[in-house]
Amino acid sequence: MSDNARVHHAMADGSAGGRFGPGGTSSDPSGTSHSSVDPINGRRGVVSFVRRSPRMNESQRQALASHSSEYLVEVPHDRLSTSVRHGATMSWPQVFGRQAPLVAEIGSGVGDSLVAMAGARPSDNVIAFEVYLTAVASTMGKLARADVHNVRLVVADGGEGLRELVRPGELSELWTFFPDPWPKKRHHKRRLVQPGFAALVADRLAPGGLWRLATDWADYADQMREVLDAEPGLTNVYSDRPGGWAPRPDRPFTRFEKRGLDAGREVRDLAYRRVHPEGDGENG
Questions:
Q1: Distance, CA of 33 to CA of 79 (rounded, Å)
Q2: Cα–Cα distance between 75 and 154 in angstroms, integer?
Q3: Considering the entire predicted model, what is its pTM?
Q4: What is the percent of the chain where pLDDT is above 70?
Q5: Catalytic positions
Q6: Residue 272 class from Cβ within 10 Å (0-12 exposed, 13-18 middle, 19+ buried)?
Q7: Disulfide-capable partner of 272 in 19, 234, 254, 259 (CB 3.0 to 4.6 Å)?
Q8: CA 38 to CA 192: how far, in whole Å?
Q9: How far is CA 45 from CA 5, 217, 236, in A?
């Protein structure tokens, strides 16, 4: 087996398998996912996205064909192609072929932030969860053109991926930039940042590990603050700044951020650190 092939079949249970048919389309009958496994307790519930299956363009098809062997990590799925089978495991040092700090992004989109930020941190192993295969294909092309090789992409729900594929205390950093705001009040239950998810993130972060977030929806920013302030395993790194908001980190402007700014919305950043077992919530 080649090194690339070995990388993408490194699950401890020895199983793998994306459910994508010819041309990279999802095999979900409807092409739309409204429910999946709850990222905390493994029970089926709502997810923070609605998945559609747009057709790939030629450049995306070529990127998928040319670069999947390096960048794409296949994981065991449940009923949906975006799910992660309960009990699945992953050895990330084996996947990357090295031991290094592990960073994850949930909802990497077309890679605008991911490529630049991972490229600036070549000593880190970066995994990115994204449910849209077309976006993953676009990201692969950008990674290859930028000569960035410390990223692995997983086509799966990020909450499930975090729960199943990342060990407690294994993450040094998590990025969730501009998650779907679900602006209608009746849909707020679909928002990613909820108490249960915050508890999961706190468990997966190493002591001192960092969770960086951003949104351009004011009520979602306030909800994030409320949820994360209530999580005992996390502390606001910038609690001494006005509103507790973080300064904008070194990430590029994405199309989502530009869209929000053009609409007159203010972008809010947050940074929360995993407190040490002895309760040391040192800022930094």
A1: 11
A2: 7
A3: 0.80
A4: 78
A5: 180
A6: buried
A7: 234
A8: 11
A9: 34, 24, 29
Residue whose token pair is 């302030």: 229
Whole-angstrom distance, CA of residue 6 vs CA of residue 111: 25
The residue to which tokens 């949820």 are assigned: 227
136 and 154 Cβ atoms separated by less than 8 Å: no
Max distance between CA atoms of the chain, in angstroms, equals 55
Return the pLDDT at 278.
63
Q: Give the pLDDT mean for 99-127.
A: 97
Residue found under tokens 């950093």: 173
pLDDT digits (tens, 9 = 90+) for 196-211: 999 999 999 999 999 9
Angle between helices 133-145 and 112-119 (to 10 degrees): 40
Long-range contacts of 14-19 (CB under 8 A, 24+ apart): 15/76, 15/85, 15/88, 16/74, 16/75, 16/76, 17/74, 17/76, 17/77, 18/72, 18/74, 18/75, 18/77, 18/81, 18/155, 19/77, 19/81
Structure tokens, 138: 């676009």
CB atoms within 10 A of CB 189: 11
Distance CA 79, CA 149 (A): 31
User: What is the 3 state secondary structure string of the chain?
Assistant: CCHHHHHCCCCCCCCCCCCECHHHCECCCCCCCCEEECCCCCCEEECCCCCCCCCCCHHHHHHHHHHHHHHECCCCCCCCCCCCCCCCCCCHHHHHCCCCCEEEEECCCCCHHHHHHHHCCCCCEEEEECCCHHHHHHHHHHHHHCCCCCEEEECCCHHHHHHHHCCCCCEEEEEEECCCCCCCHHHHHHCCCCHHHHHHHHHHEEEEEEEEEEECCHHHHHHHHHHHHHCCCEEECCCCCHHHCECCCCCCCCHHHHHHHHCCCCCEEEEEEECCCCCCCCCC
